[in-house]
Amino acid sequence: MPARIVIVGGGIAGQTLCETLRERDEDVEITLVCAEEHLPYDRVNLSELLVCDEPVEERLGLRPEEWYDDQDVTVLRGRRVERVDVHARSIGLADGETLEYDRLALATGSNALVPPFPGMDLEGVHVYRTPGDCDAIREGARTASKAAVIGGGLLGLEAARGIQAQECPVTVVHLMDRLMERQLDADSAALLLPAMCELGMEVELERETECFLGEERVEGVRFKDSSTLEADLVVVSIGIRPEVSIAETADIDCNRGILVDDRMRTSEDGVVALGECSEHRGTVYGLVAPIYEQARVAADTLLEVEEGSEYHGSIPWARLKVAEVDLVSIGTVNGERSAVSHDQSGRAYRKLVTQDGRAAGAIFMGDTRGTEAVLEAIRTMGEVADPLEWLTEAAAAGPEDLPDEAQVCDCNGVCKSQITAAVVDEGMSSAQEVMKVTRAGTACGSCKPLVKELVSIAGGGDEGPAYLCACRKQTREWLANNIREQGYQAVSEVSDACGTGRECGLCKPALAYLVQELADNHHREEHHARHINERVHGNIQNDGTFSVVPRMHGGVTTPDQLRRIADAAERYEARLVKVTGGQRIDILGIKKQDLPHIWRDIGMPSGHAYGRGIRQVKSCVGTDFCRFGIG
Ligand SMILES: Cc1cc2nc3c(=O)[nH]c(=O)nc-3n(C[C@H](O)[C@H](O)[C@H](O)COP(=O)(O)OP(=O)(O)OC[C@H]3O[C@@H](n4cnc5c(N)ncnc54)[C@H](O)[C@@H]3O)c2cc1C
Fold this sequence. Notes:
Layout: E1 4-8, H1 12-24, E2 29-33, H2 48-51, H3 56-60, H4 65-70, E3 73-76, E4 81-85, E5 90-93, E6 98-100, E7 103-106, E8 110-112, E9 125-127, H5 131-143, E10 147-150, H6 154-164, E11 170-173, H7 186-198, E12 202-204, E13 209-213, E14 220-223, E15 228-230, E16 233-236, E17 240-242, H8 245-249, E18 258-260, E19 271-273, E20 278-280, H9 289-302, E21 317-319, E22 327-331, E23 337-343, E24 348-355, E25 358-365, H10 371-379, H11 387-396, E26 407-409, E27 414-415, H12 416-424, H13 431-438, H14 448-458, E28 467-469, E29 472-475, H15 476-486, H16 491-498, H17 507-518, H18 532-536, E30 539-540, E31 546-548, H19 559-571, E32 576-579, E33 585-590, H20 595-602
Flavin-adenine dinucleotide binds near residues 10, 12, 13, 36 and 288.
């Protein structure tokens, strides 16, 4: 049995492997080495950071910091591995430290493919891969007058939508004659194009980029046919390049990715590779779903499980994460035989592809009913006698018809049987709890309704009590009684007495509110327990800026206050000033870093417009002025 396993790379692959290893073996020493400063986070939902600049860990963190302590996993953050010495069984970090291992896992992922276009290094040109890229794109989009996204694939379209959220016009430039050509056939791509244009983006197809124009800052794009496009923000999203450099330092066999066999073993003894850095049977998967299967196999191999599992490849599966367009593509989309149901008026397109009489691929656009059943059939190469009839039946099938192995949450690799087991075997009764424990539905969220239905079916139609938070099986009423009876004054007191001593990001604000309410504002304030809105005294908006509402009892104010509000609104470039229904003034579009300054300049207390309390109280000026006033 290996005593020390070192995992290089804290992406979804590294984290999943880490969790799988710990589930199987309590004792093995696990060290996770992350080049990034962040704890492992959910890269799939990175687009959220294009809209909102919340801290990565809060928004996308896969596990809270405490999890690593609880699981006895050592995480080294901001530490890059530079070399691997397979003979000495050690890795060398960039800061000079050396770590020894018994078994090594390479989960170094990919980098964005950077084309050799002249001008790629101009200010305002970005790739789309990390939280830092998202920050740069988001900030750039706030001031840019026109953006171009090079690449009309899944990520390019997602990036374009994120840029639009900052009210920056955007053109998607694509080399091929249709969008998402790897996932769509010509007919569905022809439907996607107008759908994207309706969202306000421009799309230029069959455009080959030659270079980016500008001296220091980007000013535009020039194409091979010498035509140009103006743009002062450019995002390049044309693919990935597996990160194989440290494998190469150890002469581990690499092609495009690090070559692995069916047990995820590399060419070197004791070293496995998984995730986007690995190449299995000629394929590098740029998707998250294969990682869950690969991690199970890699864990078996690392723990030397006799007759451990094997990985035989995955069916590529992708969902476009643009809220307004429902689009799923599975497997081979251009096969020898296919059935298509195409409702042109409603823009619904459903296609099932078969090969040798077996399900091989599908496209669903506008109507994604039956996706899980079809995915499972394709995965198991189910026989399909009549594709059209089969497609119709899949649409009508309910969650109860799904086979146990059907993958419900592809982002987190959770299948129906795991959800059922959480209810039947582990006694969970609410979808909230099941989602928390299995992680189904916690990434892109598209499977949440299905998870809820499955929980309800498994529980015999009963949804259990609604807990304050899934991480604690306690209802609001139960907690409130305890707080009242024991007179707790702070969240930490409640945590110590009624919980694990720690709270998750959702529990804390809810408990803080409960304690404050029950202690009638005589509670002990704990800054860390507050939601971001309460910490900064602003209300976070969909673009990541904040709205500021000074207190104004009954709408009563003074010329001096109004002057200060007006000056501050101008000084901090408010995007909108609005009189609210609650007789106050809302100053919208304030940047997070300006919040302390605007509050100082306004010199009024916060109206707590973000609080979950009563605020819509209408009042008249009262008996001093009003002929009908009563107080
Ligand atoms: C914006 C975006 C949206 C996406 N959306 C989807 C989607 O909807 N569906 C889907 O299936 N997939 C999606 N993907 C792809 C998916 O995110 C990846 O397949 C997955 O995250 C790959 O995980 P990984 O752990 O293999 O690699 P990575 O996420 O790249 O993680 C590798 C980690 O290893 C670290 N590392 C590299 N070298 C070293 C070193 N020498 N020392 C230490 N650490 C190192 C890196 O810094 C990185 O943190 C998306 C990707 C992006 C960028």
